[in-house]
Design a protein that fits this description.
The protein has 17 helices and 24 strands. It is α/β, with parallel strands linked by helices. An eleven-stranded mixed beta sheet has the order 11-10-9-12-8-13-14-15-16-17-18, sandwiched between helices. Strands 19-20-24-21-22-23 form a six-stranded mixed beta sheet, with helices on both faces. Strand 3 and strand 4 form a beta hairpin. The termini are far apart. The relative contact order is 0.07. This is Mur ligase. Pfam families: Mur_ligase_C, Mur_ligase_M. Keywords: Ligase.
Length: 598
């Protein structure tokens, strides 16, 4: 082991149920760059125990998760002292390294942090840090909330009890006594969590539309923002716990559908301790190398963190067509319900035999089993979201959302009615598998496809729809926080479909430390290695300009695949495509000047 290894890569709070345990705490990612010696891990564990004892914190899980580049070191701590918990974790690790003679550089000398090599002084300082953060009124409120079977949500500034229309919120510096809380006015609301590698936002929007049709004022969070009854409250990526808590405190929300992305799960955990249903759409390769997740099994475990929040009478809804979810299902303690494109899938048959829920396709129709009887939700080809049944991944999204809605208690007739119309208007599911038919038989597709699996599904659909007609154009980019290898895999996926014209772009807002054009350079090199002719590859880094370049090059019968990721860029591209359709534009015609979307 190097004597000059960085002391740690990351140290963070876990504010809700997470990969490591169902409570709150802290986790540190070691910076060793290789497997960590058992002696170091044991020494760290002993220091955590001594610090807990000195601080008067309760015992709880202390977990080590070894991985290819080190280890994740996590332990539970009270929810109101999580900054102090990160300080404890950092001190325990740095002191362990120092005792072993491993150079910690300047990390052990940072002012205000617990000193290394003097445990008594370190614990004295840590007690002061924890005391300054502690909320004296929290334990009594938590106990009273449990007695009333009500959820409690806590963040840096506020505490709330209940949810939505049945919630009340207080500033942390002015917490009420339990007898000052209007308990009779408080209640929970139905909550669904949605996660997966692909299809999260589509499933959230569809499930939200079903909940609204049921009569609930429904809040939802996703990568595009926070919404209530389909109206945008706040723009931005709110697929983490902060967005979830904001919506669960909204005074008009009667139900909530919360997109729960990998990043938020790993950085902070879930934003809620209890939910009624969790839907996991799929697990596929994406985002390896961050927070100690280096393989698909680790990613599957992250996605299934949502199961930690499912109530005893709740359900985890899983995709039976996904091999990773099948492999990890036995680790889920909650009741399982399965969906598939094949209603005769063994897991669906078993679920029906056990009186659990299922949803699958039989002879072209989507069948829902609610635990007691089967319901015909309609012909898959007639559901707009499936593009006549061509979009297999959206058939899965329809089945998953329908099954989750059923587990929330929504009637099959309501579910069927929404499936029969959702996706017929571009505003139903913006940025996800939108299609325009333009003059000259040009087909234009706008989608969020952001990883190899998502792009594979999209290009397979387009390939089936074009049936060998016309040329294939592709807009291609990737976020800067992916490795060169992962970017190369995206390029290889694209190359397998032999596109005639590829325009490389930046993903504005997602460059994540890379210079403009750097990702495009990696993509170009990988495309060339995969056999794409150099003359087929063009670079136009601005997303909107790149989409216009593809449209300007279109010929009759061509198919244009436009994965647009920036919210502003997508609005401009969608506005342009709507305008072209309205004007009767045909391939070869001049494009109208670029304008700002309304």
């Amino acid at each position: 082991m190097s004597t000059a290894a960085p002391p740690f890569d990351d140290s963070r709070r876990l504010t809700g149920p997470n990969l490591y345990f169902a409570g709150t705490g802290a986790v540190l990612e070691t910076g060793i760059g290789a497997p960590v010696a058992d002696a170091l891990l044991e020494a760290w564990t002993r220091r955590i125990a001594r610090a807990r004892d000195a601080l008067g914190w309760p015992d709880g899980p202390v977990l080590v998760r070894p991985h290819a580049t080190g280890a994740s070191l996590a332990f539970t701590a009270p929810a109101d002292v999580l900054y102090a918990a990160t300080e404890v974790n950092e001190w325990a690790w740095l002191d362990t390294l120092a005792e072993a003679g491993i150079d910690t550089g300047e990390a052990a000398l940072q002012p205000g942090h617990a000193p290394v090599g003097d445990e008594a002084a370190a614990l004295h300082l840590l007690r002061a840090v924890a005391a300054a953060e502690h909320l004296p009124g929290l334990p009594a409120l938590r106990e009273a909330s449990a007695v009333h079977a009500l959820p409690l949500l806590l963040d840096d500034e506020r505490l709330s009890i209940g949810m939505g229309t049945g919630s009340r919120t207080w500033d942390n510096h002015a917490l009420p006594a339990p007898d000052e809380v209007p308990w009779q006015a408080l209640h929970a609301i139905p909550v669904a969590l949605v996660t997966g590698s692909n299809g999260k936002t589509t499933s959230v929007r569809l499930l939200t539309a079903i909940a609204m049709a049921h009569g609930w004022h429904t809040a939802n969070s996703c990568t595009d923002g926070l919404y209530l009854d389909g109206r945008l409250i706040e723009d931005g990526d709110y697929s983490g716990p902060g967005g979830a808590r904001t919506l669960l405190r909204h005074p008009d929300a009667e139900a909530a559908v919360l997109e729960t992305a990998r990043g938020g799960l790993l950085r902070r955990g879930l934003g809620v301790e209890r939910a009624d249903v969790a839907l996991v759409t799929n697990v596929s390769p994406d985002h390896f190398g961050e927070y100690g997740i280096h393989d698909l099994d680790g990613l599957a475990q992250v996605k299934l963190t949502v199961a930690r929040a499912i109530a005893a009478d709740g359900t985890v809804v899983l995709n039976a067509d996904n091999a990773l979810l099948r492999a990890h299902a036995d680790a889920v303690a909650a009741q399982l319900a399965w969906f598939s494109i094949d209603d005769d899938h063994p897991l669906l048959r078993q679920a029906r035999g056990d009186g659990r829920g299922s949803c699958g396709v039989r002879e072209g129709r989507l069948l829902l089993f609610d635990g007691t009887r089967s319901h015909d939700l309609g012909a898959v080809a007639d559901m707009p979201l499936t593009l006549g049944g061509l979009a297999t991944h959206n058939v899965q999204n329809c089945a998953g959302a329908a099954l989750a809605a059923s587990r929330l208690g929504i009637a099959p007739d309501t579910i069927a009615a929404v499936l029969a119309r959702f996706g017929s208007a571009h505003g139903d599911n913006p940025g996800r598998l939108q299609r325009w038919t333009l003059g000259g038989g040009v087909q234009a597709y706008v989608d969020y496809a952001h990883n190899p699996d998502g792009l594979q599904h999209l290009l397979e659909l387009v390939q089936r729809a074009r049936d060998g007609r016309g040329r294939l154009h592709l807009l291609l980019g990737q976020a800067g926080n992916r490795s060169d290898e992962a970017i190369g895999e995206l390029a290889a996926t694209a190359a397998a479909f032999a596109p005639d014209h590829i325009v490389l772009k930046d993903m504005a807002g997602y460059q994540r430390g890379r210079e403009s054009g750097a990702v495009a350079g990696v993509l170009r090199a990988a495309l060339l290695r995969s056999g794409v002719p150099a003359g087929a590859i063009v670079e136009c880094l601005d997303e909107t300009a790149a989409a216009r370049l593809i449209l300007a090059d279109a010929r009759p019968g061509d198919s244009l695949v436009l994965p647009v990721h920036g919210t502003g860029s997508r609005a401009r591209v969608v506005t342009l495509l709507d305008q072209l359709q309205r004007l009767g534009w045909a391939a070869g015609d001049a494009l109208p000047p670029e304008s700002t979307p309304p």
